[in-house]
Every structure is written in structure tokens, then in C-alpha cells.
Design goal:
It is a single chain. This protein is α/β, with parallel strands linked by helices. It contains 6 helices and 10 strands. The protein has 2 domains: 166 residues, P-loop containing nucleotide triphosphate hydrolases (Rossmann fold, 3-Layer(aba) Sandwich), CATH 3.40.50.300; 68 residues, no CATH class. It has a 6-stranded mixed β-sheet. The chain has a 4-stranded antiparallel β-sheet with strand order 2-1-4-5, with no helix packed on it. Helix 3 packs across helix 4.
Length: 261
């Protein structure tokens, strides 16, 4: 059974020792269950026409879901977060159907899931530093010195320290994405959902940032679910499994391009 966050000592290793994804104090994860699974999900809300979406994100895997605007791709992220319920089928987090989580347990799950919304989701009235700090300040009970140390670490990890005082409108698209990704992994989650993370990035930046997000503070590999219109070649060898969404159904696309696993 996972537990809600508690204060821990500051310093190296402090954040990686805490449980960073949990479904709530009264909900048990299913032993051996994958971090995320879609089971016969109707992405399009058209049960008479659409296929069903089945996908499993295993621990440490980087799974890409590719599709166009009409495919049902845009429903994947909200369903993974429990922001919407599928008309048919179910979405599970660590073996537990997200739709069955009690309200406060669902909020706990969302707070401790790493999430990059389409675009970046940064608050325009805050600096990049304050955007990165949001989950650390408001979803933990750490002391101020511990919060500041964690934020400083994230700014260094994502190469934001020299521009941390800028507001999003003053920063480049790449730097805004760096800040949004730093915020997404601020609580060292085991599962991260990224919606169209590479739009507007150079190949070099896309590869660097995926590598950064894919590893936890202790060096272990996170489970990553990312959505994309068309996956950039620079990250294809980092993808464990890829599916293309066609009329709401998942079609295995892992070996479509040479060089994929």
C-alpha cells in the first residue's frame, strides 16, 4: 500500500526515497500491475463505428501514441489523468480503474503523476522558476529550505538557472518546454504523460529532454506515455513501443521505421 507524502531529510537522495506516485491513502496498487493500461477504450465516443483502444505502459517503458486530429489521439492524455471517463472500456493506473477512484484519491493521483499538457501549461504571470516550483510548494509538506533546494536542482537539471527569472512570454519555446517538463517531474513520479512534447523543438533538444524526463532521481527508468502527430526521428531509438491510432484503435507501429527496437 502506498502512503501519502511525508517530510524527509534534505540533501542528496532525499526526494528519490519518497513515494512519488500514489493512488491515495486508502487505495492499494495491484502487485505486478503496469503503471498504465487502456482496456478496450472507446476514444471517439462512437461505439457503432470506432475501434477499441488497447495499450499497456510497462514500468520503465517509453510508449509513443501517434495519430492525427481525427484519430482519437487527443483523448488519450485526459483519459490517462482521469480528467474524462471513456464511454466504454476502462483505464487503469497500477491495476486500479481510474474511474473508480474516490474524489480525493483521484486528486492525489493527478498531483503525483508527471504531466505535460499540449503546449506547456505554464502560468503566464509567474516566472519559470515559480512555475517549476508549483507542485513542490503546494503538493508536499517540505520545509522552505527543502523546496528551494529541490527547485534549484531542477533548474540545473533542465538548464534553466540563468533564465529562471523570465516569464513564459519572455522565454523561447524550447525553454518554456524545459520549464514545463521540469515541473512535470518535480515530484519524481514513476509515470509521466506527455502530450505532443516535441512540437517546435530541434531534434537535439527533443532527444535531450526525453532522456532527462525518462530517468528518475535515483537513475531508474520512468514509465513514459507520449502522444505525437509524427514522431521525430531523433527519439525513435528511445521508444520502446509505438502504436498508431486509426479510427480509435491502436495499430502496432513499432517497426515502421528502420532503427526502431
Amino acid at each position: 500500500m502506498t502512503e501519502p507524502p511525508t517530510s524527509v531529510a534534505s540533501g542528496p537522495g532525499a526526494w528519490e526515497r519518497r513515494t512519488s506516485v500514489f493512488l491515495g491513502p486508502g487505495v492499494r496498487e495491484v502487485e505486478g500491475a503496469p503503471p498504465l493500461a487502456f482496456r478496450g477504450v472507446d476514444l471517439l465516443g462512437r461505439p457503432d463505428r470506432a475501434g477499441r483502444f488497447d495499450l499497456v505502459v510497462e514500468p520503465g517503458a517509453v510508449v509513443a501514441v501517434i495519430g492525427d486530429e481525427e484519430s482519437g489521439l487527443e483523448a488519450v492524455g485526459p483519459l490517462a489523468l482521469g480528467l474524462a471517463e471513456p464511454p466504454a472500456g476502462r483505464v487503469e493506473a497500477f491495476g486500479v480503474p481510474i474511474a473508480l477512484l474516490p474524489y480525493y484519491d483521484l486528486l492525489s493521483f493527478r498531483r503525483h503523476l508527471g504531466y505535460l499538457p499540449q503546449g506547456d501549461g505554464l502560468l503566464q504571470n509567474l516566472t519559470l522558476k515559480d512555475n517549476v516550483a508549483l507542485p513542490v510548494r503546494f503538493a508536499t509538506d517540505h520545509r522552505l529550505s527543502e523546496v528551494e533546494a529541490r527547485v534549484a536542482q531542477l533548474l540545473d537539471d533542465f538548464r534553466l538557472r540563468t533564465i529562471a527569472s523570465l516569464r513564459p512570454a519572455q522565454a523561447t519555446e524550447e525553454d518554456r518546454r524545459r520549464a514545463a517538463l521540469a515541473r512535470a517531474v518535480a515530484l519524481n513520479p514513476r509515470l509521466v504523460v506527455l502530450e505532443l512534447p516535441f512540437v517546435g523543438l530541434t531534434s537535439r533538444a527533443a532527444r535531450e529532454l526525453l532522456d532527462r524526463v525518462s530517468r528518475g532521481d535515483d537513475g531508474s527508468e520512468r514509465a513514459i506515455l507520449l502522444t505525437s502527430r509524427d514522431l521525430t526521428p531523433a527519439v525513435r531509438d528511445r521508444v520502446t513501443h509505438a502504436v498508431r491510432v486509426v479510427d480509435g484503435a491502436a495499430i502496432d507501429d513499432t517497426k515502421r521505421e528502420s532503427g526502431w527496437r
